[in-house]
Design brief:
Largest sheet: 7 strands, mixed
Structural class: alpha+beta
Bound molecules: zinc ion
Number of helices: 11
Strand content: 5-15%
Radius of gyration: 22 Å
Shape: globular
Order of helices and strands: EEEHHEHEHHHHEEEEEEHHHH
Length: 353
């Protein structure tokens, strides 16, 4: 059995580790019953090649039809696992330690967030929760990175540095964890994190978890109503051309980037109408990324099968078959088995000519 990635000591015996806390995924919940949250998640997953769907067992068929424009297939049901959990990364002790941090973040910050006043496009948190806030998001970033979630990966040096900060700051009870966070505050607060928050979310079908595999200065996670920017080096704060997914003109850096030794956390608040534009832009980015990957796979396979590179026309036929088939929605279009089938068909058709 592999060793736990957090303590580096015990066996990684935990199955079903959460990469992203349930309450952060809450706006994906359908017909919310918090006590059975894991059964009720419905989500888009667009981080990898292909889109998969996770539908909670209790979600009614009518709702599914409304979302998908079709019934659930047997294949959907067979693949019906929670994508946001992984096995054998952590030990059960460390999973519990992380859960204490989640509880502290939820009670001290998350549950109070919507009641806090917005001024100049931002929310300012109490100075005493600065390190809880940073440590929580560091833990999410770190977990997504060690799991290589949606090909998200931060550099090794930062991953190791953050592992140590998290490991040193988590105790074996909520009380001990609170104490350790305060003791380790100088290390935690040496990291730089930018945060945007979307207060009003209307349409859960459009919720998304997007771990950008290609942005590094800063790294970016978009998780439903949060945009998290992680600056692995503090100098990256001043890097040119930072991608803010069409929100560039909405914020000054001072309004959402929490630098080393900051006194309190500032969260940029995204207006609902701007969020729609930004979200659509991210979907577009991802669709392009998926198409690029599919075309690359097609070209390699074609080359292997025929010994020659595909012509522009052959590639065009593949793209046309993949993208323009009627009645196929975004969920289904980039499913891996569909892509492989379309590749095969295109090769067979080309050879037959
Ligand atoms: Zn451990």
């Amino acid at each position: 059995m592999p060793t736990c990635k957090l303590c580096n000591k015990r066996d990684a015996n935990k199955t079903g580790s959460h990469l992203i806390s349930d309450f952060i995924l809450r706006s994906m919940l359908v017909e919310g019953n918090p006590s059975r949250r894991s059964d009720r998640i419905i989500s888009n997953r667009i981080e990898t090649l292909g889109t998969d769907l996770f539908v909670g067992r209790d979600v009614n068929q009518e709702k599914v039809n409304e979302l998908l424009d079709r019934d659930l297939s047997d294949e959907d049901l067979a693949n019906n696992i929670n994508h946001y959990t992984v096995d054998n990364l952590l030990c059960t002790v460390c999973e519990d330690r992380l859960s204490y941090l989640e509880t502290i973040f939820k009670t001290d910050i998350y549950d109070k967030l919507d009641a806090l006043p917005i001024q100049d496009n931002k929310i300012v948190l109490d100075s005493e929760v600065t390190c809880v806030f940073k440590l929580f998001w560091l833990s999410v970033i770190w977990r997504c990175s060690i799991a290589n979630f949606g090909t998200f990966k931060i550099d090794n040096k930062s991953e190791n540095r953050i592992r140590k900060i998290i490991n040193d700051s988590l105790g074996e009870s909520i009380e001990e964890t609170r104490k350790l966070i305060q003791e380790n505050c100088p290390q935690i607060n040496s990291e730089t994190i930018g945060v945007l928050y979307v207060k009003e979310v209307d349409d859960y079908l459009k919720n998304l978890v997007f771990c950008s595999p290609f942005l590094k200065m800063p790294y970016v996670l978009v998780i439903n109503d949060f945009y998290i920017f992680f600056y692995s080096k503090s100098g990256h704060v001043n890097a040119m051309n930072q991608t803010m997914f069409k929100l560039d003109n909405e914020f000054k850096k001072d309004n959402y980037i929490n630098k080393k030794n900051c006194k309190s956390i500032q969260i940029g608040v995204v207006k609902a109408e701007k969020f729609k534009e930004s979200r659509d832009y991210i979907y577009g980015l991802k669709a392009k990324d998926l198409l690029d990957k599919a075309v690359a796979l097609h070209n390699d396979t074609f080359n292997l099968a025929t010994g020659t590179k595909p012509t522009g026309k052959v590639i065009g036929n593949f793209v046309d078959a993949l993208v323009n088939e009627e009645g196929v929605n975004m969920h289904d279009r980039y499913k891996e088995d569909r892509i492989l089938r379309k590749i095969k068909e295109n090769i067979v058709n080309t050879i037959a000519k």
